[in-house]
Amino acid sequence: MADETKAPDKSGTGTETAAPAGKAKKVKAEMTRREFNWLALAWSFFAASAAAQLTAMGRFMFPNVLTEPPSSFKVGLPTDFAVGAVDERFKEKFRVWVVRNEEGMYAISAICTHLGCTPNWLSAENKFKCPCHGSGFYMSGINFEGPAPRPLERVKIALADDGQVLIDKGRLFKQEAGQWNDPESFLNLS
Predict the structure, then answer these.
(1) Which tens digit of pLDDT belongs to each residue from 33-43?
(2) Among 131, 100, 45, 127, CA closest to 89
C-alpha cells in the first residue's frame, strides 16, 4: 500500500498503519466548510439587520411630506356663484364654502369649531351640520345647536386684478371677536 504511512506502535511491538493522508485532509476540509457556513449565515443576518437599521434611520431622516393645497387661490368670477346659495366646489380640496347673498360674498372655513370635523351643507334644511357631534350652523356660519362653542370662521376674500374672486385661508376672521366687520371678511358687490 503506497499511501499508508508507518507509525510507531505504542506497545513497542512493531508498526501500526495510520489513516491515509488524503482522508485526514478531507475530514479537516469538511470541518472548515461546516464552520464557514455557520459563519456566513451569521454575517448574512448581521448585514441584513444593519441594512434594516440604516433603512429605518434613513426613513426617520427623510419623513413623509404632506402636500397641502395653497392657502391662497382663485375660485372664479362673482357671476359664477348663485345668489342665496352655498357653493361646495371647494369643500373637499380647500375646506372652504363660498356663499353669495344680495349684498356680496363671503367664504366660510369648513372646519367645525368644536373638534375640527368637516360639516356638511344640508340645502333642504338650509344649514351646516357637523356629522361628528351634531353642531348646527346657519348659512352665515353662526352656531345654533350642538356643542360647538362659537360660529364658523370666515376667511379673507377679495377681488384679484383679473376680476376673479381670491380667497386666502391664511387670514381668519372670528365673529365673537368682532372681526366679521373687517372689510376683508366680506366681498361687497353692491
Answers:
(1) 555 577 778 88
(2) 100
Helix-then-strand count for the chain, H and E: 2, 13
Q: Tell me how far apart the alpha carbons of residues 187 and 175 are, in angstroms, rounded to a whole number.
A: 16
Closest CA relative to residue 124, chosen from 103, 145, 139, 108 = 139
Residue whose cell numbers read 510507531: 8
3-state secondary structure of 40: helix
pTM: 0.63
